[in-house]
Structure formats: structure tokens, C-alpha cells
């Protein structure tokens, strides 16, 4: 397997390999031929374990975007069925079991994450969204075992890294979880059968499940299908992509404001800027190469460019401009703070004095008053740019600007705007 973008015949593999999306391919030459021959159809599955996806899932969304940009047809497979089991892959313990209602609510939130990145419709290259509960909920267990279970050996299943690690550590691995790989394999078979889907993509931890699906599809309907995995995306310092001190970087604006999303990308480590531009934006290689040469103060310009483009892709140009303007207001004292996360406080509370501890919690700058006290003790809390040293301090009308607002910060990365109403 060469993974040489210059040797790829298809626009899909040229872009995927060239931008660093590819870790493994089951049959590189076969996939290249298929993708170059017409409208290639590929899918990625997303289980509904939360009300939003986060940045850790963004590389998979971008995989589907690359496929569509190359003239292929993306399928977003929602895991309405598989979420009832819970993917044990790369997990040290079982996932919590969600109710049907919780799964439906999560699915409704997740669906919105794809709309900025993919064009949905009924055209030949338009993306479609399917729920695997459509077929998984109809499975008759004895029939399923007889027709498909016979193609999976326990020997091969327990050899998978995730299973082996759990067993070696003497951690529970339930029979429920053990069935997940069968259901994911069956998903690929169903999509190949109903939609002529030939490509499954996923993270590197999905390799075993993808290969099982390819094998099952070959055995049952004698169709050649392919698998592509992406590398585990980590930061230059070795951290997991999308994890911050404040928790996951959610894609839904209700869970992570456009301003905080912009700040996440602005705070990218120097060594990651060009790499993340390739993975998470559509910026041309020529521009990325120029940013890659940036040193000293100019690296900040590259980070702002990454933040602007990544935020615009998800939240739109207007929100990206607001976020950049708000950041400018915080760090340089100019521009507009309109895009900054804002929380409202009744003016009457400011007349008597609104405790800073309450404000920090209400502005979601800290998780608790205890954390707020620690931050004040570390001199990392600021009100309108001035350090707050007293945990008993209160915010009054005197702190409000002409717009009736005040700015609170914790450290260099967390900021919020208090607005009197």
C-alpha cells in the first residue's frame, strides 16, 4: 500500500491521501479504480450517544465531504439501532444503556451537525441520511444467527484488540457488546445491497469491524467493497484532539458557542496549524504551504485564519466574523464583543451587588463555586480586564459599559459577557 497521492487515479483518494485523512485502506488499487470509474458511494456510521457530535468526529464528517467534493455520494448512517447496544470499540467499560426516547432526542440534535458540510437531496451525488434501526429493529434473532452468525468465529472476534485488552485486564465484556461487531458488519451488507454502497470509512479503531463487514458482504452477496480508516488525530503535544479543560468541543451552538468554537481553533498548537488546515478546511494546498512557513508572530495570523475558516464552515461567515471581533475586543480592547458568549442578569441584582462567584458559574466559565474560588485564588479571574482577588467580590452597575455589559474572563481562553436586563 503506497498511500501516494500523486499516483492515485481518483480525485477522492488524491484528496484524502494528500490531506492526511488516510491511515489504512483494505484494497488501495481496487478502491482507486472504483472511485475513478463513476459515482462512488460511501458511508460512515454515527451512534447517537449525545445530543451533538464533537470535534473528535469532525474528521469523519470531512471524509464524507471529501467524497462528495470528488463527485461521490455520501451516506450518513445514524445509529438508531446500534446505539441500543453501544459500540465497545476503544472503550474500557460498557456504555450506558439509553432509552429509545433518549436516542431519538440525541439523533435529532446530531442530524444538524451535517447540514453545514454536506449537500443533501435526491440528486446522484447528494448526501442521504439513513437510520440503521430501519433494518436492525426488524431482525429475527434465530434467523440472523443462522444466516449471518455462522460467518463469524469466536476465535477471530476475541482476537480484536479491544476485546483482547478488556479480557487481559479482566474487565467485563458483555455478550451485548460482543454482538456489536456483527450488527456493524450487517449494516455494511445492507447498505451494499440496498444502495450499492461500496465504501465504509471510520477511525482506525474501527478497522476490525470494517474488515468483518467487507468479509460478510463478499460471502453473502459476492460484492467487492472497501474500507478506509483515518489516523487517530492527536495534538502535537500528544493530547486527544477535541479535548479541552472545559470538556468536549461540541458542534451544536447550543452546547458550544461559535465564539468558544473559534477560540478552540485559535488556540491550536503551533505545530498543528497546517495539519489541521489540511484536515478540517478546504483551503488550497498552496495557501496551507505558505502558512506552514509561518514563524514568530506570523503564526498567530495562521491560527486566526484557521479559526475563521473552521468556524465559518460550521456556523457561517457572519458568526465567524462576530467571534473574531469578540476575540479582538478581549485581547486588544477594540472591535465588537457581540459574538462573545453572553448571559443575562437582572439589573436589580447589580444594584445590590451580584457575587462574582455566581457570575462565573452563570457564565459557564467554571463548573462550580468551588472551582471559581480556586480560580480567584490563582489570580486567573478578570472583570473588565482587572484581576479579581477577593472571592467575596460583587459586580455592580459601575462595572457596566455603555451597552450595559461587563466582561468576565478565567485564564486566557475562557471569556463571557454579562448583560444587564
3D structure, described in words:
The protein is an alpha/beta fold and 421 residues long. It has three domains: 5-230, HUPs (Rossmann fold); 257-332, Tyrosyl-Transfer RNA Synthetase, CATH 1.10.240.10; 342-420, RNA-binding S4 domain (Structural Genomics Hypothetical 15.5 Kd Protein In mrcA-pckA Intergenic Region, Chain A, Roll), CATH 3.10.290. The protein has 19 helices and 15 strands. The protein has a six-stranded mixed sheet with strand order 1-6-5-2-3-4, sandwiched between helices. Strand 14 (405-410) and strand 15 (414-420) form a beta hairpin. Helix 12 (258-266) packs across helix 16 (317-332), helix 13 (273-280) packs parallel to helix 15 (298-315) and helix 15 (298-315) packs antiparallel against helix 16 (317-332). It is globular. The protein starts with 10 loop residues before the first helix and ends with a strand. The mean pLDDT is 90.
Short note summarizing the structure:
By secondary structure, the chain is an alpha/beta fold. The protein has helices spanning 11-18, 28-37, 58-69, 100-111, 133-136, 141-147, 154-158, 161-168, 175-178, 180-195, 207-221, 258-266, 273-280, 285-292, 298-315, 317-332, 347-352, 356-362, 369-377; strands at 24-25, 41-47, 73-79, 128-131, 199-203, 226-230, 243-244, 247-248, 342-345, 354-355, 381-383, 386-387, 394-395, 405-410, 414-420.
Top keywords for this entry?
single chain, 421 residues, alpha/beta, Rossmann fold, Tyrosyl-Transfer RNA Synthetase, Structural Genomics Hypothetical 15.5 Kd Protein In mrcA-pckA Intergenic Region, Chain A, 3 domains, 6-stranded mixed sheet, 5-stranded mixed sheet, 19 helices, globular
Amino acid at each position: 500500500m503506497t498511500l501516494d497521492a500523486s499516483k492515485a487515479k481518483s480525485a477522492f483518494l488524491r484528496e484524502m491521501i494528500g490531506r492526511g485523512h488516510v491511515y489504512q485502506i483494505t484494497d488501495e488499487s481496487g478502491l482507486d479504480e472504483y472511485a475513478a470509474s463513476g459515482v462512488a458511494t460511501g458511508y460512515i456510521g454515527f451512534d447517537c450517544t449525545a445530543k451533538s457530535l464533537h470535534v473528535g468526529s469532525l474528521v469523519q464528517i470531512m471524509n464524507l465531504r471529501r467524497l462528495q467534493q470528488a463527485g461521490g455520494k455520501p451516506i450518513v448512517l445514524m445509529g438508531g439501532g446500534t446505539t441500543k447496544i453501544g459500540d465497545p470499540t476503544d472503550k474500557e467499560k460498557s456504555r450506558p444503556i439509553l432509552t429509545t426516547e433518549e436516542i431519538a432526542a440525541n439523533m435529532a440534535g446530531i442530524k444538524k451537525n451535517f447540514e453545514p458540510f454536506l449537500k443533501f437531496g435526491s440528486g446522484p451525488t447528494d448526501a442521504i441520511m439513513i437510520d440503521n434501526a430501519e433494518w436492525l429493529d426488524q431482525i429475527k434473532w434465530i434467523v440472523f444467527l443462522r444466516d449471518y452468525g455462522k460467518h463469524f468465529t469466536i476465535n477471530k472476534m476475541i482476537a480484536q484488540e479491544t476485546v483482547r485488552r478488556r479480557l487481559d485486564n479482566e474487565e467485563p465484556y458483555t455478550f451485548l457488546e460482543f454482538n456489536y461487531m456483527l450488527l456493524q458488519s450487517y449494516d455494511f451488507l445492507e447498505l451494499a445491497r440496498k444502495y450499492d454502497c461500496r465504501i465504509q470509512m471510520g477511525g482506525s479503531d474501527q478497522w476490525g469491524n470494517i474488515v468483518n463487514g467487507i468479509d460478510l458482504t463478499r460471502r453473502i452477496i459476492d460484492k467487492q467493497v472497501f474500507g478506509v480508516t483515518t489516523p487517530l488525530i492527536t495534538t502535537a503535544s500528544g493530547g486527544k484532539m477535541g479535548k479541552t479543560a472545559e470538556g468536549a468541543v461540541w458542534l451544536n451552538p447550543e452546547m458550544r458557542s461559535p465564539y468558544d468554537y473559534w477560540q478552540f481553533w485559535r488556540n491550536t498548537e503551533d505545530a498543528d496549524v497546517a495539519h489541521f488546515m489540511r484536515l478540517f478546511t478546504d483551503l488550497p494546498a498552496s495557501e496551507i504551504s505558505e502558512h506552514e512557513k509561518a514563524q514568530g508572530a506570523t503564526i498567530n495570523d495562521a491560527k486566526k485564519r484557521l479559526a475563521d475558516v473552521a468556524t465559518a464552515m460550521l456556523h457561517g461567515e457572519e458568526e465567524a466574523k462576530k467571534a473574531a471581533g469578540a476575540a479582538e475586543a478581549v485581547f486588544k480592547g477594540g472591535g465588537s464583543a457581540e459574538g462573545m458568549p453572553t448571559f443575562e442578569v437582572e439589573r436589580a441584582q447589580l444594584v445590590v451587588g451580584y457575587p462574582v462567584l455566581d457570575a462565573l458559574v452563570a457564565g459557564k466559565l467554571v463548573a462550580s463555586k468551588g472551582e471559581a474560588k480556586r480560580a480567584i485564588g490563582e489570580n486567573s479571574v478578570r472583570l473588565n480586564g482587572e484581576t479579581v482577588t477577593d472571592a467575596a467580590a460583587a459586580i455592580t452597575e459601575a462595572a457596566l459599559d455603555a451597552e450595559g455589559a461587563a466582561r468576565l474572563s478565567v485564564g486566557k481562553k475562557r471569556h463571557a459577557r454579562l448583560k444587564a436586563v
